[in-house]
Every structure is written in C-alpha cells, then in structure tokens.
Design a protein that fits this description.
Helix content is about 25%, strand content about 30%. α1 runs antiparallel to α3. The chain contains 4 helices and 10 strands, in the order βββααββββααβββ. It has 2 domains: about 150 residues, no CATH class; about 50 residues, no CATH class. With about 200 residues, it is α+β, with helices and mostly antiparallel strands. The mean pLDDT is about 85. The longest helix is centred in the middle third of the chain and has 18 residues. The strands form 2 sheets. Strands 1, 2, 3, 4, 5, 6 and 7 form a 7-stranded antiparallel sheet that branches. β2 and β3 form a beta hairpin.
Length: about 200
C-alpha cells in the first residue's frame, strides 16, 4: 500500500494532514484520509516547513527581509491526471497594524514540465520531500515529545496485540474501538487507524 501526502496545514492550535492510500494489484483503489491533531509535531516537522521560506521569497520576487514574520501555514501537493507532481505553498505574514495576517499563495508549479514552462525551484522540491517524510512520521505518531517507546519491547508487544485486533478486509467487521473509559482511544479499520 502506498501513501501520498496531499495537504499539510498548521495553525497555532492544530496540525492537519490529508493523504491518499492506494491498494490493490494495480493500485487503483484510493482511500482519502485526514488527521487533525492539537499535539505539537516534532521540531524537524517545523524545520521542514521553514525550508520553504527562502524559495517562496525568490519565487514571489520578495526581498529576503520580507521573510521576517513570514511563516508557512500550508502546502498543497497536487498530482495531475498525467502523473505530474507540483505544489502550492501558503504563507502568513504578520502585519504591524492589523489583527490578522496577510495570506500569500505561490502559484501552482509542477516539478517537471515540457519546453520552457516554469517549474518548481530545486530548493522547493527538496523542502517538499522533507515535509512529506515529516508528515508521514506525524501520521505514524511522531510528536514533539518523540517516540516514548522507541526500542521498548513491552510497547512493541502492545502494538502487536493491537494489530491482531485490527479487522480483516473480508471479515464483515468495519471497525474495532479501543478506549480508556473516558472516551479517548483509537478506532481500528482494515487499512487505517483513527483517534477518537
């Protein structure tokens, strides 16, 4: 099964990631997913977002000093029907005399194009690849506190036990919920896991 990040969005209170998984022999079955979390991502996640700022400034023909108070709030990954990958970066710029920021969007640019058509700058392609890796790590549970159970054999046994509870695709069971008695927990489905 492959996982394609489609959108990463951050605010002061929330991180949201949208992605598509594909399965089947020819990868023709698509499942759309969205994760929203109030937990802080790992510092490397925010570093990956910040890597977009210099190429965004160059692309929008803004002076380097304009980067002060500029933050990347979202990246939309686009896959065209012909398989061409590209993206749009959304930034927020703090303004001195207003209560809300200025919103700047880069134009959509593809990673590759024919002829003399403009394409994504190399630095933006590299930033996108790093952000995709960080988004996948966030989806699988890496947060600001790190993986508390890395290398922990007892924790691995718990994860293995949870996976044994996951319903099989052809079982007729659509989901299994595991909660802590306070309404917090996870919902296991054949191909995904959601927090509840």
């Amino acid at each position: 099964m492959s996982l394609d990040i489609r959108k990463v969005k951050v605010s002061k209170s929330e991180t949201s990631i949208e992605w598509v998984t594909r399965e089947g022999v020819s990868q023709q079955t698509e499942h759309e997913h969205r994760l929203k979390s109030t937990e802080l991502a790992a510092p490397s996640f925010y570093t990956a977002l910040a890597r977009f700022i210099p190429p965004v400034l160059r692309l929008l023909e803004l002076p380097p000093a304009y980067g002060e108070g500029l933050q990347v709030s979202g990246v939309t990954f686009v896959v065209q029907d012909n398989g061409t990958h590209g993206l749009v970066v959304t930034c927020l710029k703090t303004l001195a005399d207003t209560n809300s920021p200025l919103v700047l969007n880069t134009p959509y640019l593809p990673e590759d194009a024919e002829g003399e058509a403009p394409i994504l700058p190399t630095a933006m392609v590299a930033a996108a690849k790093q952000l995709e890796q960080e988004a996948q790590a966030f989806i699988t549970g890496t947060r600001a506190q790190g993986d508390l159970f890395a290398g922990d054999k007892a924790a691995q046994k718990v994860r293995d036990a949870v996976e044994r509870l996951r319903p099989k695709k052809d079982s007729g069971i659509t989901s299994v919920e595991i909660t802590d008695g306070k309404g917090r927990g996870i919902r296991l489905m054949p191909t995904t896991t959601e927090r509840i």
